[in-house]
Amino acid sequence: MSESNVVGQWVPATGAGDIVTGAARYCPDIDLPGLLTGKLLYSPHARARIRKLDVSAARQIPGVFAVLTQADIPGENNYLYSQADQPLLAIDEVRFQGDAVAAVAALDEATADAALRAIQVEYEVLDGIFDPLVAMKAGADQLVEGEDNIIMNQVYRTGEVEAALASADVIVENTYRTQWAEHAFLETEGGVALVDEEGVVTVYSSCQAPHRDRMQIARTLAMPESMVRVITPYIGGAFGGKDEAHVQMHAALLAVAAGRPVRLIRGRRESILTHVKRHPIIIHCITAATREGRLLAVKARAIADAGPYHNATHEVMNKFGEFIGGPYSVQNLEVETIAVRTNNPIGGAFRGFGAPQAAFVYESQMDDLARKLEIDPLELRLLNGVETGTKMYTGVVVREGQAMKASLRKAAEKIGWEKRDQCERQPAPHLRRGWGMATILKGSGMGRGLGDHAGVVLEMHRDGSVVLLSGAADMGQGIITILAQMAADRLGVPMSSVRAVRADTSRTPDAGSSCASRQCMVSGNAVLAAANSIRDSLLSVAAGKTKISRDRLDLRDGRLQVDSEPHALTIEELARRALFWGYPLHAESKYHFEYPADVPAGDYRFSQEVFQFCTQIAQVLVDVETGQVTVERLIAVHDAGKMINPGGVYGQIEGGCAQGIGYALTEELIVNEGRTLNPSLENYVIPMALDIPEMEMDVLEIPEPVGAPLGAKGIAESPIIPTAPAIRNAILDAIGKPLYQLPMSAERVLTALDG
Amino acid sequence: MSTPQYVAPESLEDALRIKSESGADARLVAGGTDLILRMRDRVFTPKLLLDLRRVPLTAISCTAGEMRIGSYATLSQILAHDEIANLFPALVEACRPFAGPPIRNRATIGGNIVNASPAADLVPPLMAYDANIVLSSISGDRELPLAEFFTGPGQTVIEPDEILTEVRLPLMPPDSAASFIKLGQRRSMAISIVNLCTRLSLAADGTVATARIVLGAVAPTPLRAVAAEAVLAGNDITTALLDEAAQQASRESMPISDVRASGSYRKRMTAVLVRRALSAAWGELGRNNSNG
Amino acid sequence: MADRDIQMNVNGLALKVNSGPGRTLLSALREDLGLIGAKDGCSQGDCGACVVLLDGQAVNSCMVLAPQAQGRDILTVEGLAENGVLHPLQRAFGETWAFQCGFCTPGMLMSCYALLSSNDEPSREEILTAISGNFCRCTGYQAVVKAVQQAAAEIRASSSGDGEQGRAPA
Ligand SMILES: Cc1cc2nc3c(=O)[nH]c(=O)nc-3n(C[C@H](O)[C@H](O)[C@H](O)COP(=O)(O)OP(=O)(O)OC[C@H]3O[C@@H](n4cnc5c(N)ncnc54)[C@H](O)[C@@H]3O)c2cc1C
Ligand code: FES
Ligand code: FES
User: Fold this and answer.
1) How far apart are CA A662 and CA B219, in angstroms?
2) CA distance B229 to A747
3) CB distance C104 to ligand 2 below 6 Å
4) A413-420 long-range CB contacts below 8 Å, 24 or more apart?
5) C49 touches ligand 2 (CB under 6 Å)
6) CA–CA separation, A157 vs A143, rounded Å?
7) Given an 8 Å threshold on Cβ–Cβ distance, is B103 in contact with C22?
8) Cβ pair B188:C132 closer than 8 A
9) Which ligand is nearest to the CA of C104?
């Protein structure tokens, strides 16, 4: 492949040079003259009334520049992800251990700590609400007076579920429990705020949605959005946990109050105690099938612990409901999704939005069903899997579904599924080996009915160099690299000619949040449109100059190509001529992801319609005396549509699998009466290098026909989704005992063995 | 964090003098991997930090029938030491899964002992090898069995003017084998749920002359399961006997529940892992005998 | 003893920091010397984002008191490239996508550098062990193994070759 053909190449990530030399600046690295340290004071209680809050002593401490309480907030005192119910600084009650009551800015960390200690808060500790099953009962103590603790109760129904259940040959019915899981992005949440010489409040923000942050900051400060600017420096991971704003508003409030720049970075403990978690959900699920294994119906009821505030609970539980049927052709499905308020940690966005919990259920159900029917798990899945043209229980017709079965077959081939029994199942008296698979689908994009658009600005200069302005936050997933590759490809220039600017609301157009695996598609399309219009100018100039018809011309390797042969005219010359003759080399485009006009039948509201399919197969070794599980092999076969950058795609898969192994086996926030008992990377146990097997990855490139730029669709979320059920099914295969609770800790495995 | 003074004296004499003058106000810092966290949490608020890194306390030597390890020897040093690997392999095994390389490059054997965590990984093998420790003060040295050092979590018999200067391991009699096992939630960077070390030394007739079963993380201090040892002592080894000893060790454990595991899991694992460790030691003795 | 003046040799330069003994080496590097490569991911030894070399050994700089570095050699990620020429490890990390967000990378690079200085042909297991104190949430460590092996091969090739030192322009 020729050099300039950058799409599909292992191009190093934009900014790699800064990262490997230590020059890359993340929020904690930003230093400014007069910079103050910001800190927040949090509630020590899960639920309490604030009787008295006295900050006067803290304000007297030399070196303390600002001490703020809710009374000092000029605008709206709340976050606004979906509903404005979470205060930035508590008003009269604290509702979980992560509620902040005061903010300080001081000369240095020690002084800020002293100020926090000098703040006097008198709490009246209230009985907390900690069990969603109790909280949802009629007459239960209300978390917010006058409001039901149930903040969501949605039923989606397709087909005739009860009739199908009645006619089924076999039924599998189980109750599942999932845990609070922590993102543990290595860079904790942070923001650095200053007021610039024009009075613009500028905030460096470690975030996923810079334009939404800008809106939130402006409404908190009661300033016009035109006077607020959000810049994303390098960002040390997010995984959904920085989708909602965190400390940006506090930093901005402090900077305005102190008249000096303020850097507010959460410590690790504070980070774990405060930001949202993957929801724990209790799911009761019934799966019905014919004797031959055809799925007839799925009926599920899911109760999620939302914590005290809405945050992304609706979005998460919507996705849970959308995917609970799995990548299967199920025509009768009913799912009730309930979310309940408690004084526990807040549930929110985390890679996959409810789909990992759903997959743990539906893929476990499939293996339990396979055992009951004595059908091979692979066969059962192939029998029921969706294909191109299948109408799903959501009413959505799968436009490109080959990858469902292709990924199953490929993964089975890679691990040697048919020959697995030739491997030793009991390599030592206390060890059992087993194999398990899980196959899933996850949509890319916001979903039908939700605005899903992104803008981009592209400009080529007279020397052929290009600037790409996109407001898509790059948290490490590599979006700006991919966008730059698309631009380079269309414009026929090398990657080194494209400078992609990190999101800055004063320069880059709104691209929405970097979530839901959407940016590659949505911003990708915007880049293609903008690049195509510049390309058009270049080709017009070239056609005029060479008198060769347009359809024989192309741009690559920094040159004009005629009939795929390099021509003497360089892109640089074309650019110079284009600018001289007034052709536009500046393009702005806004792409709006269009859902097909045919409204799917059924009551699903936010269905995604471009699907990432994938299959993972795990080989595990279980120590039946200790309950410890070792993942010996993990096969991951994913569909990316077209890989714009294999480095990024494999990176996402590998990282997602590692997170999935942790989610499956060890990761669990232990919460007792609203208190998190393990808020550290020591005790919230995430696999390290020696705990992860060599992953055997494969990527299918089945281009997506609609909406996917160059055939590429998102990949970000799917890798974490099948890992836990694949491991669960492998444990089942190894020990013959099913587990229904995450994580599958050694103790739980032992309990299952005892049972 | 509190801000104490910091001194790094050039000689042990200077250090002992400072320690005798300041007592508990002066705290030793070695690798700092426990101390810094305690200071940050304000558990310790020393006025003076005494760093003996300039004092030659890192030496490891084998003389006069014993192995001497300076208290400032790091885990990495021990891990790389061929003679220790030969003579006290279970000690090296305990170093291997200990934290990760950057911590092992700092953490010292002395710090692991004096910190007196019930889960300290080096203590079970050291006790299984009948280690003594040397506590030095301006008025002289005293040597005592490590097994007599601990009185509770973070509590020891060290006096405010004393410094742990050396760990001494007697050479094992022939026909000895020891085995260390750590149960943690991951392969590195894990505090032990249970750690333990067993040692068997056989008499000429093949019976057990000495048995050591030392349990960590299942009691307020590292614990010698003496009744379980007594099950083995003087007897011919059989699988059933090992099982019985393992069950007895489990009965002797008195674990608590915490975020890492429940007490009942720890108790159960004690039986499983003591049996494994004893079997491993026994297996090794069998191999040695058949080879020799 | 001038209690607060600490002299250290950082990336080959003799530097002095004026620092209270409660400070860590990490904060001295970042705040006093402006060397922001080493990161703070946990402040308590759990994550390895702060790893630097102290007299050639990888250490968590958040767990070293600044005065403990008195008179010693410190190498940080900023000191890996020479005269603007990247070390083979740095280049390999970029080429193999051994990171995504990059926040773990400075610490990860230093652990790998320490490994390569004593072992020029490390196995997968040896590399994983060397980075077993470095947490990365974005990758699964596999690409790091690939990067280290690629760099090791390059270093071996260049040291057996014409003494080119295995460096290439940044
Ligand atoms: C991330 C991390 C992982 C860890 N993993 C493990 C693990 O896997 N297993 C394990 O057992 N521990 C582990 N630890 C705990 C710790 O690293 C060890 O206990 C280590 O051996 C302590 O040694 P140090 O030199 O760092 O002690 P320091 O912190 O310097 O000292 C510890 C205590 O001992 C005192 N002290 C030190 N030396 C002497 C002396 N010579 N005389 C008198 N008093 C002295 C100090 O005053 C202090 O009270 C871990 C710690 C961290 C931060
Ligand atoms: S910051 Fe030092 S190990 Fe995490
Ligand atoms: S690349 Fe993000 S933590 Fe390693």
Assistant:
1) 29
2) 28
3) no
4) A414/A617, A414/A635, A414/A637, A414/A696, A414/A698, A415/A617, A415/A619, A415/A633, A415/A635, A415/A696, A417/A378, A417/A617, A420/A619
5) yes
6) 30
7) no
8) yes
9) 3
Tens place of pLDDT per residue across chain B (292 aa): 557 899 999 999 999 999 999 988 999 999 999 999 999 888 999 999 999 999 999 999 998 889 999 999 999 999 999 999 999 999 999 999 999 999 999 999 999 999 999 999 999 999 999 999 999 999 999 999 999 999 999 999 999 999 999 999 999 999 999 999 999 999 999 999 999 999 999 999 999 999 999 999 999 999 999 999 999 999 999 999 999 999 999 999 999 999 999 999 999 999 999 999 999 999 999 876 654 3
C168 CB near a chain A CB, below 8 Å? no
Nearest ligand to the CA atom of C52: 2
Q: Which residues contact A33 (CB under 8 A, 6 or more apart)?
A: A261
Structure tokens at A683: 């005790």
User: E strands within A495-650?
Assistant: 498-501, 553-556, 559-562, 565-570, 586-592, 610-623, 629-639
For residues C43-78, one letter each, b for 16 or more C-beta atoms within 10 angstroms of the residue's C-beta and e for the rest, the string is: bbbbbbbbbbbbeebbbbbbbbbbbbbbebebbbbb
Q: What residue's CA is closest to ligand 1, atom 31?
A: B111
Residues A681, C47: C-beta atoms closer than 8 Å: yes
Residues of chain B with CATH 3.30.465.10: 1-50+57-171
CB contact under 8 A, C22 and B4: yes
N-to-C CA span, chain C = 43
Task: Indicate the residue of A17, A681, A695 with minimum beta-carbon distance to C142.
Answer: A695
Closest CA to A685 of A636, A622, A739, A747: A747
Interface contact flag, A626 B273, Cβ < 8 Å: yes
Q: Domain B176-284 has what CATH class?
A: alpha beta
Name the DSSP letter for residue C30: I
Smallest Cβ–Cβ distance between B102 and the set C1, C44, C133 belongs to C133
Domains along the sequence of chain A with CATH: 31-126+186-237+242-274 (3.90.1170.50), 281-447+600-753 (3.30.365.10), 453-592 (3.30.365.10)
Q: Which among B189, B259, B262 has CB closest to A747?
A: B262
In this structure, which amino acid lies at residue B190?
A
Type of residue at A752: A
Asked if residues A156 and A333 have their Cβ atoms less than 8 Å apart, the reply is yes
In this structure, are residues A45 and A273 in contact, taking their beta carbons and an 8 Å threshold?
no
- β-partners of residue B213 are B198
Would you call the peptide bond into A743 cis, given omega within 30 degrees of 0 as the criterion?
yes
3-class DSSP assignment, residue A401: coil
Looking at beta carbons, which residues of chain C come within 8 Å of A654?
Answer: 139-140, 142-143
- Ligand 1 neighbours (beta carbon < 6 A): B 27-35, 71, 98-99, 103, 106-108, 110-112, 114-115, 120-121, 163-164, 191; C 44-46
Q: Which fold has domain B1-50+57-171?
A: 3.30.465
φ/ψ (deg, to 5) at C88: -50, -35
As for the ipTM of the complex, it is 0.96
C36, C37, C38, C39: CA torsion to nearest 10: 70
Point out the ligand 1 atom lying closest to the alpha carbon of residue C133: 1
All domains in chain C, ordered by first residue: 4-79 (3.10.20.30), 88-159 (1.10.150.120)
Hey, how many other C-beta atoms are within 10 angstroms of the C-beta on A33? 7
Amino acid symbol at B263? G
Query: How far is residue A213's CA from residue A201's CA, in Å, rounded to a whole number?
Result: 12
Residues in A closer than 8 angstroms to B269, CB to CB, are: 626
For residue C43 and ligand 2, the question of a CB distance below 6 A is answered with yes
All residues of chain C having their beta carbon less than 8 Å from the beta carbon of residue B28 are none
